[in-house]
Amino acid sequence: MAIYAIGDVQGCFDELQRLLDRIAFDRFHDTLWFTGDLVNRGPDSLQTLRFVQQLGQGAITVLGNHDLHLLAVAAGVGKFHKRSDTLDGVLNAPDREELLDWLRSRPLFHFDETLGTALLHAGLPPQWSIADARRYAEEVEHVLQRGDDSEFFKHMYGDEPDHWSDGLRGWDRLRFIVNSLTRMRYCTEGGRIDLRSKGKPGTQPEGFLPWFEIPNRRSRGTRVICGHWSTLGLRIMGDVCAIDTGCLWGGQLTAIRLDAEISVTQVPCPMRCKPG
After folding, report:
1. Percentage of residues in the chain having pLDDT higher than 90
2. Residue 168 included in any domain
3. Which end of the chain has less neighbouring CB within 10 Å, N or C?
4. What are the residues whose beta carbons fall under 8 Å from the beta carbon of 166, sequence distance 6 or more?
């Protein structure tokens, strides 16, 4: 029995199958952790969703920004539908509602006490402990899982507020939680997040650091698995394993073993989208 974490798939179903062959995945005994962004921009979001859903308890996946985007478009928030989206296969599928209901019920944050490991898509503000992140993620999950989430999606998009306060309320509070867990890369030591910078470290504005390099980060000491940051590439450092290695952009799709000494398995991927 093995546990593997896999980086952002984004509809690259064939590459996912090749990676699973490479690690000799046994669907009856092994467990897969997905960092989110199962869908969009790649060629086969529908097959990817169906496959992961059918794994049942053998798959744990957190929501990424592209997964939430699919749910928003499906909820009728059509003004945010982008020309680069490749979501029509899911939106027109006969099992659309079953797949969307399953996706809607996924968490934004997962923590395994036995492994001492957290799974999320993007990042954690330095003010948040692991317990904080679990609690705040549940606030958003509760809204999503009520089923009447169209109003939430109308307010989900946007880059403000850019820093956390316990006094945040309403849509501002939920938006900041979503942005942190599914979009952030850089922040200041004081916790102000920058959602516009997407390049590798060294390209960000002065005063900002990768979120995991903030020295007083309260989540330090717990292993965190994340994706989202393809320009960062594979980073296994200290208590953070960043494993979005740009499958969509012609990089690799990466799996790391979690229940034993960390080992890395990768498969090369054709370029599905051109950067920029």
Report:
1. 90
2. yes
3. C
4. none
